[in-house]
Amino acid sequence: MPKVKKAHCYVRDYPGVFRTDGAILFCTFCETNVSCDRKSQITQHLGTSKHIENSKLKSNKDQVSQQFIKNHLIKLEQIIKI
Ligand SMILES: [Zn+2]
Asked: What superkingdom heads the lineage (predicted)?
């Protein structure tokens, strides 16, 4: 099925943005299905204000969790030294 192949291509082209179960292309930021019959449908989705907002929120969240993990590790190191 060419459609399946396409979904995988978009997952590869946009790592971290899309995922697929083999048939359906899924936007990880918007938690929604994205039609991938045409590439224009992908670029259109990427350009929607909803997607841009969601990707900003997601990347902010990731930064916060990364900082949290870093602080957590520093605390652990301090505990080990004591
Ligand atoms: Zn999206």
From this structure: Eukaryota
3-state secondary structure of 56: helix
| CA 22 to ligand 1 centroid distance, Å | 18
Residue at 22: amino acid letter: G
- d(CA 10, ligand 1 centre) in Å: 13
Residue whose C-alpha is closest to residue 31's, from 13, 58, 12, 4: 58
For residue 58, the 8-state DSSP code is: H
- The whole-angstrom separation of Cα 79 and Cα 82 is 5
Rounded to two decimals, the pTM is 0.69
Mean per-residue pLDDT over the chain, rounded: 87
Rg of the chain, C-alpha, whole Å: 18
Ligand 1 centroid–CA 68 distance in Å is 26
